[in-house]
Amino acid sequence: MALLDFDSTTFGETDMRLAILTGGGDVPGLNSCIKAVVMRAAANGWDVLGFRRGWGGPLHYNPDDDASQTRWLQPLTPDIVRTIDRTGGTFLHTSRTHPGRVRPDEVPAFLAGSKNAVAHGDVVDCTPHVLAVMEALGIDALIAIGGDDTLSYAAHLHDQGLAVVAIPKTMDNDVYGTDYCIGFSTAISRGVDAITALRTPTGSHERIAVIELFGRNSGQTALISGYLADVDRSLISEVPVDMDRLADLVMADRNRNPSHYAIVVVSEGATISGGDIIEGGEADAYGHLKLGGIGQHMGDILTQKTGVATINQQLAYLMRAGPPDSLDRMVATIFANLAMQQLEDGKSGVMMALRDGKYTTVAANTCLQGENRVDVNELYDIKAYRPSVRYALGKPMFLY
Description:
This protein is of the alpha/beta class. Helices cover about 35% and strands about 20% of the residues.
């Protein structure tokens, strides 16, 4: 079966055929990474095939159905990727699919009753199908770009015998094993710009601004954005908040400010002391409910306790919108070339990483071996609810 009827002179028999996909939330820099992979592969005379919609691509691809090719596959050549690095997001699209944990009602119809879809309790493991797809397409190696959820499944496929290299991305910068993930710098830049802009209405109306930033389990985005934007208080996921104390602190901040306002940033995963994280909706394939609303909730409480009106703003997807900044372009491009270097050297089962300011690799399953969280003892004042960076000597560029 011809692959999307591609001419063999542009997508044909070569020494290697690679697949690439992006999973989880999109971040700026993904397209730069994809382009760099394709350009180096082309220089080697290798084919590259993109799976559309993350792990949804190999899950839903049916080797016996020509129609599924255009929906779930994208052959990648230099001409196709020539301009994609000029935009943010992911050219290949993404999803939060987990082929090893598919709900029965979400198993592709063509897999119903198949030996490649194995029921385990209330989920179905379609990993045998994914491996069969890789074999049918002649995939020699897979490059997976994602956060710890996406990369944990990539590590599982490596354990099953597929050659895999992993590239970490997440604007929370919370993949364990690397000091930096694609998307973090741009997210911080967007956050700082928005916080700075919101000083105008907050100051004009002499209010308290509560600005909610992305960050489920890690408060790094709120910590660094708040630190660089010099906000009054930064509330992070790792430290529950006493609202009485916060109200007193914020009122003191407002009273000290000649313009009579205060700025508070809060991670979407932050909690009030004795309370639960605010989340809702239906859990995704990795068991995550949708976060959001803690900023509004805290703002309402602050108004009740202080008598001062609050401006509540969720930055949400604006933090991952638009093209990448120069740092994310750099890291994305170097991670791509480092991944290709591994494959050229016959290596797989590794994740690209930055450690101590240097590019390196770690085992692909490193993302499963720990958590990347704010070092509260070193970087945060738990009584004042603000960053505390007294000693920077020897710390990484982004402090952790």
